TrEMBL record:
<dbReference type="GO" id="GO:0043937">
    <property type="term" value="P:regulation of sporulation"/>
</dbReference>
<dbReference type="InterPro" id="IPR036638">
    <property type="entry name" value="HLH_DNA-bd_sf"/>
</dbReference>
<dbReference type="InterPro" id="IPR037208">
    <property type="entry name" value="Spo0E-like_sf"/>
</dbReference>
<dbReference type="GO" id="GO:0046983">
    <property type="term" value="F:protein dimerization activity"/>
</dbReference>
<feature type="coiled-coil region">
    <location>
        <begin position="1"/>
        <end position="31"/>
    </location>
</feature>
<dbReference type="Pfam" id="PF09388">
    <property type="entry name" value="SpoOE-like"/>
</dbReference>
<protein>
    <submittedName>
        <fullName>Spo0E like sporulation regulatory protein</fullName>
    </submittedName>
</protein>
<keyword id="KW-0175">Coiled coil</keyword>
<dbReference type="InterPro" id="IPR018540">
    <property type="entry name" value="Spo0E-like"/>
</dbReference>
């Protein structure tokens, strides 16, 4: 599996986790929801950086 495929899989997992937490907590500022959102943001930033570096090459 390529690096991008691994990251896309992780994005999907984190997105599902975030959706589940939001459904459970019913509160977008719950600390667990915020942490999950930050984790997803981080991996999305990593994905964007990789895609940008590949298109710049």
């Amino acid at each position: 599996m390529s690096e991008i495929e691994e990251i896309l899989q992780k994005i999907t997992e984190l997105r599902k986790e975030l959706e589940n937490l939001i459904e459970q907590k019913k509160n977008l500022i719950d600390p667990e929801v915020v942490v999950a959102s930050q984790m997803l943001d981080s991996i999305l930033n990593e994905y964007n950086k990789i895609v940008k570096s590949k298109t710049d090459s």
